[in-house]
Amino acid sequence: MAKKVKNNKRQLILEEAAKLFKAKGFGGTSMRDLGAQVGMEAASMYNHINSKDEILELICFHVSNTYVSQLAQIEQTDTSYVEKIKALIHLHIRLMIEDGAAVSVANNDWKYLTNDKLEAFKEARKNYEKGFAALIEQGIAAGELQPVNTSVALFTILSAVRWVELWYRPGRGITAEELEENIMTLLLNGIAK
Amino acid sequence: MAKKVKNNKRQLILEEAAKLFKAKGFGGTSMRDLGAQVGMEAASMYNHINSKDEILELICFHVSNTYVSQLAQIEQTDTSYVEKIKALIHLHIRLMIEDGAAVSVANNDWKYLTNDKLEAFKEARKNYEKGFAALIEQGIAAGELQPVNTSVALFTILSAVRWVELWYRPGRGITAEELEENIMTLLLNGIAK
DNA sequence: AAAGGCAACTAACATTTGTTAGTATATTTG
DNA sequence: CAAATATACTAACAAATGTTAGTTGCCTTT
């Protein structure tokens, strides 16, 4: 089964690339660096991928597509707006913990995408943000949330969840569940007494 | 006064470098790119700076030193812990708005610092975080804040303030003051009703 | 007017970069 | 078993990179 094997190697390259891009940035990672990590000469990787740019694209759109499709799913559930927003926060934290490197790349290195891919990514992100913002707005209109500035709330939530990538390691004395609960409380209720 | 002129050119290089590093990353910005932006051949800039690495160092430590010295000052004021934390949040937002490019570089490109400079930067940041965390802890102990996990609160605050760099432009329909007030409310009281 | 130094230039350097060509060895397919 | 395909390798490329050397013109000081 050549296909299976090929996909595995390809997947390995993508995973190692995500780790290296996260650690050293897209520009700071050479194909020879990546080859060394994968256990292969740089040139050999071209049997599995078409270009360095393609690696970045695959990582970024994998993450982007996950967010978009999950948002669509959450939008259709029959729950309160607060619950929907909590579900989105949960999604962000879980993805960060389970696939931190890829999310990190999609967060930080998307700007090295080229031409139409760059535009497509920005468009997808904008749409995601719009969908998220709409939930906040509706939550306010429904009286479930404080009348905060929607953009401010949106970006504060999105950012407040990003640091997990920089900080969370299994065995830091806090489980993923505790972490999530703490963040959720903070965003919903604040730190003031 | 040759010295004055020299400092001005040097300053210009640092400012344009911060903008470019923010837009395209440290690795994605070539000395020739920077020269074009400054209005000078790449080689000519070496009359004002010693290396590309030095540019990054100067930007990163300028920001880092500002944070550290301001924290020291705030620590010594005679106010409640809540007020001190609010002062720090205010500092972050103000710096982001006034010197966004440099702060952005210090946030994202510090990892390209080399050897001892990298260590020194990480050390400085760790100390800053420790000082900030101590204020939160003391605020909890004094009964001014909810008993949240200190690390979670610290990083949520630090991150919640970062997005300003990605989003805020003068003339976005919201003033710096409104922005600050909104973020402050959100972090202190949350979005839930 | 002469001298000295600052700041710009051009040209070139050694590396490193992403990628292709060509080749050899496995592995799968007929 | 033979043929075909997939996957690894080495060697090399053209372009781009940070940086240095050497030179020229300009401004300040004497």
From TrEMBL, chains A, B:
Keywords: DNA-binding, Transcription, Transcription regulation. PROSITE patterns: HTH_TETR_2. Residues 30-49 bind DNA. The keyword Transcription applies. InterPro entries: Homeodomain-like_sf, HTH-type_TetR-like_transc_reg, HTH_TetR, KstR2_TetR_C, Tet_transcr_reg_TetR-rel_C_sf. Pfam families: TetR_C_24, TetR_N. Residues 7-67 form the HTH tetR-type domain. Gene3D superfamilies: Homeodomain-like, Tetracycline Repressor, domain 2. SUPFAM superfamilies: Homeodomain-like, Tetracyclin repressor-like, C-terminal domain. PANTHER family: HTH-TYPE TRANSCRIPTIONAL REGULATOR ACRR, HTH-TYPE TRANSCRIPTIONAL REGULATOR RUTR. This is TetR/AcrR family transcriptional regulator. It comes from Hymenobacter fastidiosus.
